Every structure is written in C-alpha cells, then in structure tokens.
C-alpha cells in the first residue's frame, strides 16, 4: 500500500504542465527531443518536422503543448522576436527533461551578430546546449510547393539541432551545417557532409542508413 501510494505520487508529480506521447518501439532511443510549437504555427508542419527528425536521428521525438511566443522577446521597431530570448525561454520550459528542446514558430526571429544589430535569421541554437529554435517566416518565401517548404524546415531543424550536438558551421556548401550568411541555403543539400555525419554517428545521434 505504501509503495503503491509512492508510485501514484511519482506519476502525478512527473506529469505537471506538459503532455508527452509515450515512446514505443523495439529500439530504445538514445535520448529525446521535445518539439515546442509556438502559437500560430501550422500543426501539420510540426508533424512533418517530427517525422522527418524521427527518420534521421536516433532519438525519440516528443510533441509538447503549444505555448504563446513570450511577449518580452518582441522587438517592436523591427517586428521581430529575439531568438536568444526564446532559447532561454525554451530551456526554462524543458529544465533538462528531454535531451533537446526545439521551438518552432511562424514569427520572424532575430539575433545580434556583430556588426549586425537585430539581424533577421531562420534559426538559432546553443552550441553545444539544450535548446534551439527555428522560424518558418523566411523559409516559406518563394517556394515552388509545400514539399519544398517542408524539406527546408526539416533541414533547418537538423542544422540547429546539429549545433546543440556541438557541430559548428561547416565550410562544405552542400552540408546541412553550412552557415546561411543571410542567404536562403536550405535547398543546397539535405544531408550532413561525411565529416559532420561521422561526428554524429560516432556520438550515436544519427540513424544508420
Ligand atoms: Zn548555424
Ligand atoms: Zn559538414
């Protein structure tokens, strides 16, 4: 009786504030990635990103309940949300419960990268770290079709997650880890180059293909 009460307490205390899907499957995932959709983001896009990550990474991908983009991150003069602030927010939401947390928003996001103040970006991630964020605001521009848009967003998620796994920018033009440098480079390649690939495989993060 004492043990069952203790068990009930454990279950109750571990499900406050977020909804997660149960992770199943024969192969125990090495770690978990939680996706936090910010309010207003296309729900189907979130599901496509989830399945794209599951196919590529050796991780269980969980969907969290959506949350509004924190008002404090808004930079009114340029109508953008400061991504550095969103990373702090995402880290607070996760508190180490999942290995990584990926925020997805449709709002324009920015960072300050000397000499550029409030520079519009597609994504940002700690390198290494727990949190990263991606925005569909720029990748949705000038798309041929939805398939291209989804592909861009998955590549972007893999790029920012790559940073959280310690990968820096890569000089290889067709590598996912290439720095965008203000351009749209999400159509250049859908894979990590051999070097980045080897690093992630060695760390047990990439699925063997
Ligand atoms: Zn980057
Ligand atoms: Zn590379």
Textual characterization of the structure:
By secondary structure, the protein is an alpha/beta fold. The chain has one domain (29-202): Collagenase (Catalytic Domain) (3-Layer(aba) Sandwich). It is 32% helix and 20% strand. It contains five helices and nine strands; from the N terminus they run H-E-H-E-E-E-H-E-E-E-E-E-H-H. The strands form two sheets. Strands 2-1-5-9-8 form a five-stranded mixed sheet, with helices on both faces. It has a four-stranded mixed sheet with strand order 3-4-6-7. A hairpin with a 4-residue loop joins strand 3 (74-75) and strand 4. Helix 2 (43-56) packs across helix 4. The longest helix is centred in the C-terminal third of the chain and has 19 residues, at 146-164. The chain is globular. The model is unreliable at 1-27 (pLDDT under 50). The structure holds zinc ion (2 copies).
Q: How helix-rich are the residues, as a percent range? A: 25-40%
Count, helices: 5
Which percent range describes the beta-strand content? 15-25%
Shape: globular
Radius of gyration: 18 Å
Task: Give descriptors for this structure.
single chain, 209 residues, alpha/beta, five-stranded mixed beta sheet, 9 strands, globular, binds zinc ion
Give the gist of this structure.
The protein is α/β, with parallel strands linked by helices and 209 residues long. It has helices at residues 2-13, 43-56, 83-94, 146-164, 194-202; strands at 31-37, 59-63, 74-75, 80-82, 100-105, 109-113, 116-121, 123-125, 131-135. The strands form two sheets. The protein has a five-stranded mixed sheet with strand order 2-1-5-9-8, sandwiched between helices. The chain has a four-stranded mixed sheet with strand order 3-4-6-7.
């Amino acid at each position: 009786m004492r043990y069952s009460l203790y068990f009930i307490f454990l279950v109750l205390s571990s499900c406050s504030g977020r909804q997660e899907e149960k992770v199943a499957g024969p192969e125990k995932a090495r770690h978990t990635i939680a996706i936090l959709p910010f309010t207003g983001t296309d729900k189907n896009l979130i599901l496509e990103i989830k399945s794209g990550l599951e196919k590529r990474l050796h991780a269980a991908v969980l969907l969290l309940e959506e949350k509004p983009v924190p008002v404090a991150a808004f930079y009114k003069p340029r109508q953008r949300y400061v991504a550095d602030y969103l990373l702090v927010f995402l880290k607070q939401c996760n508190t180490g419960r999942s290995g990584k947390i990926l925020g997805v928003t449709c709002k324009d996001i920015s960072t300050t990268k000397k000499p550029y103040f409030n520079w519009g970006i597609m994504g940002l991630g700690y390198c290494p770290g727990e949190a990263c964020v991606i925005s569909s605001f720029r990748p949705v521009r000038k798309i041929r079709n939805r398939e291209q848009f989804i592909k861009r967003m998955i590549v972007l998620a893999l790029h920012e997650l790559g940073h959280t796994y310690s990968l820096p920018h890569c000089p290889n033009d067709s590598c996912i880890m290439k720095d965008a440098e203000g351009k749209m480079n999400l159509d250049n390649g859908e894979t990590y180059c051999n070097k980045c690939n080897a690093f992630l495989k060695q760390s047990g993060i990439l699925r063997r293909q």
